[in-house]
Amino acid sequence: MAAVLEVEVGGPGEREAEEVDLSHLSPEERWRVEHALMHAKHHGHEAMHAEMVLILIATLVVAQLLLVQWKQRHPRSYNMVTLFQMWVVPLYFTIKLYWWRFLVIWVLFSAVTAFVTFKATRKPLVQTTPRLVYKWFLLIYKMSYATGIVGYMAVMFTLFGLNLLFRIKPEDAMDFGISLLFYGLYYGVLERDFAEMCADYMASTIGFYSASGMPTKHLSDSVCAVCGQQIFVDVNEEGIIENTYRLSCNHVFHEFCIRGWCIVGKKQTCPYCKEKVDLKRMFSNPWERPHVMYGQLLDWLRYLVAWQPVIIGLVQGINYILGLE
After folding, report:
1. Does the N-terminal peptide bond of residue 124 adopt cis geometry, omega within 30 degrees of 0?
2. Which residues contact 244 (CB under 8 A, 6 or more apart)?
3. For residues 197 and 194, what is the distance between their CA atoms, to the nearest angstrom?
4. What is the per-residue pLDDT across 279-288, written as a single tens digit (0 to 9) for each?
5. What digits encode the pLDDT tens for the residues 57-97?
6. How many domains, in total, are found in the chain?
7. Are 168 and 223 part of one and the same domain?
8. Which residue range is the domain that position 130 belongs to?
């Protein structure tokens, strides 16, 4: 089938449609022709484009202020709406663009996460549930971290031309790297949001933590406030035997539990007294600190994935109402 492009020629008020045959051109040449025709079509619209840029900047500023106020005043509803958008918005584009591989992974992740979330929100809470929850989300966290690193390295290798050593086309190598980056960052953000929600539910159910107010139980020195299990057990007793960690407030926890609370559950306070946790002291090993920085990066990307499409859609709606194209 011949590739035909319909263009408008003539000045304002006297435009006529003219067909241009592009079938004899290579894909690169065809892209250049289409790009040049697009510039010709928008020639003379500089004032309109400037107005559209101003609308975009104003909408971004106002939206950012509103989101910050919403997050400060009603953090629970903000987090729930953001999590829902993070979960649904990519699904819409996946179905629309026929990204079946992503859809399969999304379904598997959603199924297991739904089961883990269901377990975390049950009352009474099964003793093994907190560790099951943190193990699952810690696994996804590490997988997303590794996937993002590999994707970033693939992109950098392509930019430096190292893909040619393996006889891989630049576009294929770049697509591979960007895909891995997207998978790692997206599931990293989604995992942390679900983990935070589950951590709140479990800690509130155990009774040693309350997001607002005083805990419903008094914390004993021999109990971990994150999982509710005994910290030290006798030889003949059933319990968890592992390393412990004492915070600056002198509360003691299982090392796995408090690390899951801080890294996976996005908490930076003591699960009982809410005193600020010194993450630099907790993660003294320099190889562990990138996990903290990676978590901060995911917090920033949450806004980009969840709210940026909404803001762009709002800008397009304003432009449509004002007759700007």
Report:
1. yes
2. 231, 232, 252, 253, 254, 255
3. 5
4. 666 655 544 4
5. 888 888 888 888 888 888 778 878 888 888 887 888 888 88
6. 3
7. no
8. 99-206
